[in-house]
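Troubleshooting entry. The earlier prediction with flavin-adenine dinucleotide gave an output that would not parse, so I re-checked the input for stray whitespace and re-submitted. Clean input:
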Amino acid sequence: MRSLQSDVEQRGTRIFELVDKHPERLFSKAGFYQRLMALSMHDERFKTQLFRFVAVLPSLRRSSEIIQHLEEYFSDSNDGFSPLIGMGVRVARIVPWISAPVLRWNVSEMARQFIAGRNPHEVIATLRKRRAQKIGFTVDVLGEAVVSEAEADEYAALYVDLLEKLARETRDWTDSLGKNAELFPVVNLSVKISALYSQISPAAPADAMAHLSTKLRPLLRRARELGAFINFDMESYALKNTTLELFKTILTEAEFKDWPHAGIVIQAYLRDSEGDLRDLIEWGRGRDTRFAVRLVKGAYWDYETTKSGQNGSNPPVFLQKPESDANFEKLTRVLFENDSVVTPAFGSHNVRSIAHAQAVADELGIDRSRFEYQLLYGMAGPIKRALVEMGYRVREYCPIGELLPGMAYLVRRLLENTSNEGFLRAKFAENVPAKELLRDPKELIKPNGANRSGSPVMATAENRQNKNGASLHTTAGDSFRNAPLVSFIYKDSQDKMQSALREARKRFGEKHPLYIGGEKIWTDNLTPSVNPAEPTEIVGYGTEAGVDEAERAVKAARAAFEKWRWTPFEERAQLLERAAAIMERRRYELSAVEVFEVGKPWSEADADIREAIDFCTFYAQQMRRLGRPKLTQQVPGEESYHHYWPRGVAFVIAPWNFPIAILCGMAAAGVVTGNAVIMKPSEQSIICGAMLMQVFEEAGVPPGVLNFLSGHGSVIGAHLVDHKDVDLIAFTGSREVGLKIWESAGITRPGQRELKRVICEMGGKNAMIVDADADLDETIMYSIYSAFGFQGQKCSALSRLILLEENYDRVMERLIPAAASLRIGNPEQPGIMVGPVIDEPAYRRILEYIEIGKKEATLAYQAKEVPPHGYFIPPTIFTDVKPNMRIAREEIFGPVLSVLKVRDLDEALEVANGTDYALTGGFFSRSPDNIERIKARLEAGNVYINRSCTGAIVGRHPFGGFKMSGSGTKAGGEDYLLQFLVPRVVTENTSRHGFAPEQSPQYRDEFLWPKPRQ
Ligand SMILES: Cc1cc2nc3c(=O)[nH]c(=O)nc-3n(C[C@H](O)[C@H](O)[C@H](O)COP(=O)(O)OP(=O)(O)OC[C@H]3O[C@@H](n4cnc5c(N)ncnc54)[C@H](O)[C@@H]3O)c2cc1C
């Protein structure tokens, strides 16, 4: 008996023979495209620039713009790029009106290689040709991830329309094999869930399923009536569980339970794909009706690894290509072994994977008419021909649509064709021998983990060099690992959060003490803290401190400081690490309290706890770096050590909008640097503050080193700011309060030892500018999130959207429907984007601003429905806003967005910079020159390009602004701790009578922490 491997080799060799009978290059279009792709495969930088240029081209309207972008992308083409490009750029400069259309035409042609038609009419013509070649079809509508429900509705209608047309046009078509034809309807439509609902949140599968089912039912119903097949495509990992659940749920409904013509995709590059497939099969058996599975490796490998790299979590995909190949083979067998319930389709261009499926089918006695191969339109033509010739059923995946919405698809295809590890490149561009290509992937898996070459996550800091020759290596951030965010994709995480919310509810009304000098202190006054989504609910009570308690706290802190300052920094750092570990353990519990106390949506609450954890671990790491004295210079006969002392007693005043993270960040910085800290949470988030105190208590903070005082800012806050024994004030909050603190801290009181250091982080009036060539999908998605996420109550939130008049209409016509699609509600429910604002005064103030806006500008959009209870403000958008209007100048701190129209980028910059604030700012553009210009000129402490302007991550995006946004400090940055320290230099003459040691001695431990005298 032949081994499976030799059978695979024989079949593979046969396919190759047939392929080689009609030799074809990797890219069927010769000339321009072929040469560009060849270049891309040999030059990664060129490839990046080329793909970026291709992606922006369809959005450029004028010839001059096209040429300008060409120059910007390829201007330094002397560094090894093809003379073709260099010459192209030169020619283009001279005759833009000729070159630009030619370029556009060429890129369109390149895209058309992968797009079967712009409309149903064109696509049907293509399908007819394929029919003559005995190749079937599945049609996919280009465009994914809609930003509004209006767009989603359009897609749903498009799918139904397409289905009708395809059914009509192919009425008399029959199956190419004529055997087991009932398993493979001629009309086959592939759908993507992200095109059908704009508000999919992985945390809220039930909501997604309710909306998607409503859209899908008519489509499935019609497909059934027409005898067509519907396939659920699989997209990024975040949508995987929802897609699987949706598929199973809707197809178990009575109406579809006995309908066999639906299929779903399993991505073999996912580690959990085998579990998912087995689960599906079990479901199918229970349902007792066939269904189909298209097995693929997966199209989002780069995306998944990049995303996970950014989040610091394990990628859900295999990291070695042969692992995906081997898993594909494993799942191939699973599919065939379950032939009685599942109809397999193999979506691969890899001859080894294809031949392996043939061999396993034969081994298990499965007739070749019971499964099919699916390949992408415009790719691997010779393989399709070979398979048809061998008597297999072949179906082509045919995208339909315009280039602009199809760009994401096109870029995925270009990446796939040029991928270092891809089969197509190996076979058709690099002529790797058949024997090599047919090897068993299991043998190629390296035992010691990942071969992640080519992965974006692997670009190490060391090999990133900028143009000036300076390394981009950022010591602090690069050596630090952030805690990953909780992924609410998983049912387990959703369940844990639900259960934490239930538990938190049970503890509503609990009372929390002050914590002074290691003791729990109660006073007669208790302050209730309410749930802003349901103000009748009291989340808990905080004990109210008065001046007496404040005095007591200063004394306790002062006393503790004298010991704590001499405690080795290693011990202090470990305290923070213990606190971080406790917060990790209590993560869901803490998040749940935030949801109730300040109205944070789940993922925002989790991000806050993650930030608190990161502050602790990052500052611990930074203290170890700063704590050791440093020799200033090597000179004979003298040693000078530079080092730091803590300042003394630090008073930390935090806001409610990041109720644990900011409080924790400032307090942890104070404690780890050897100061004694009094922390005062905001009056609106006392319970979160009390929870943080519990964390530090459990972590073993010595008495007096961290004290917790809740109470009125106007009473204890003001008292402590002015206190002679308070040496440092770390404040985050409003400009009004911040400036008062700044001023009063400048007055030296009798008996005061130190000049008070004030760390003052205040508000913003953050602007994002949208360039004429911006990617509008991203612009809308990120602008909406930046403006309305957590109800616009982040100091970093977007409040001024600055649009160039050239694309004003295009942006607005998508922005408003996107805002109108947002989920507003009680954030206790998963997947809510807009919850309540913090309290009644905030509610009233924001409504007042809305009234001002109505007088000053044009109310372009305001949500109509918000929950009846609670402090819900409808998301609001004003247009015709001018820079001098109040709504364009004053911080509103709510879900209100002002849109300003400007002539050009110069004016945009002037408007963006024309405020008192400089906190965050952003820019959407695909012009490298404009991006550089904004990077250089936008006045903001944190400038974000082509992403949201909120969501700073510790160590990665040190956060803080200047002008009236703050004193220029950077929370989560490597120099933050310096604010809490005073530098000292100790110099000793080490020479005696002209004799000096050759080397300066190491400092002794006593230098840092003197032993107590015996
Ligand atoms: C008809 C059809 C429909 C498809 N539908 C979908 C779909 O709905 N959803 C979807 O996600 N994909 C889908 N794909 C798959 C995807 O678009 C790619 O075509 C496919 O993954 C390429 O695999 P291959 O076997 O042809 O090529 P190969 O060259 O053998 O494999 C390339 C694949 O290997 C994986 N890979 C690459 N590098 C690594 C690495 N370092 N470690 C681990 N794995 C790696 C990636 O998945 C990559 O795409 C579909 C493919 C076809 C042909």
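This one parsed fine. The pocket of flavin-adenine dinucleotide is lined by residues 233-234, 265, 267, 269, 294, 296-301, 317-321, 323-325, 347-350, 353, 374-376, 397, 416, 421-423 (CB under 6 Å).
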